[in-house]
């Protein structure tokens, strides 16, 4: 028997929240070994990080983007936006899960709307912070960033 769903059925984790988490995880997944220069910068970031899942993703993205010491000041706002976005989405997800059994259809739609709005706001904040960093990158770094952000799994949320 094939299981079907409708757009109005409750889900424990909203699709867009899952998409955002997938996008962040994909961006942060390492694809190659770090060079000696990258290892030093990554070691610094990992020492400072609290080693939460989002910090692990941030550290991996830092390494993949080959952030230099000179770019660290531009990287920190990107990392903070990623942390803030993850915190916001986690809070909304927990609220939806805690209230799922008591929500009316209208409550569910409003809650889902909050998730969608938070996701959109988070992407805008990340874009703004990342743009300054991207503009400071070498052509090689920009090409690498373009490939990372263009990857099929990064845009998995678009595929449904």
By helix and strand content, what is the structural category? mainly alpha
Helix content: 55-70%
- Please state the CA-atom Rg, rounded to the nearest Å: 18 Å
Per DSSP, what share of the residues sits in E-state strands of 2 or more residues? under 5%
Q: Major beta sheet, specifics?
A: none
Count up the helices: 6
Reconstruct the topology from this structure.
Layout: H1 15-28, H2 36-48, H3 53-64, H4 72-99, H5 105-136, H6 139-150
Essential attributes:
single chain; 160 residues; mainly alpha; 6 helices
Briefly summarize what is shown.
The chain contains six helices and no strands.
Provide a descriptive summary of the structure in words:
The chain is mainly α. The chain has a domain at 51-159. It has helices at 15-28, 36-48, 53-64, 72-99, 105-136, 139-150. The longest helix is centred in the last third of the chain and has 32 residues, at 105-136. Residues 5-50 have low confidence and may be disordered.
């Amino acid at each position: 028997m094939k299981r079907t769903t409708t757009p109005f059925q409750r889900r424990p984790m909203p699709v867009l929240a899952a998409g955002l988490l997938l996008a962040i995880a994909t961006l942060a997944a390492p694809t190659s070994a770090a060079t000696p220069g990258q290892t030093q910068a990554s070691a610094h970031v990992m020492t400072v990080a609290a080693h939460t899942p989002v910090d692990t993703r941030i550290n991996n993205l830092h390494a993949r983007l080959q952030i230099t010491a000179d770019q660290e000041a531009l990287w920190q706002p990107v990392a903070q936006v990623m942390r803030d976005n993850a915190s916001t989405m986690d809070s909304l997800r927990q609220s939806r899960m805690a209230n799922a059994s008591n929500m009316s259809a209208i409550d569910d739609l409003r809650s889902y709307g909050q998730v969608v709005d938070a996701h959109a706001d988070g992407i805008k904040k990340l874009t703004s912070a990342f743009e300054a960093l991207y503009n400071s990158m070498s052509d090689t770094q920009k090409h690498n960033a373009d490939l990372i952000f263009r990857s099929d799994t990064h845009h998995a949320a678009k595929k449904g």
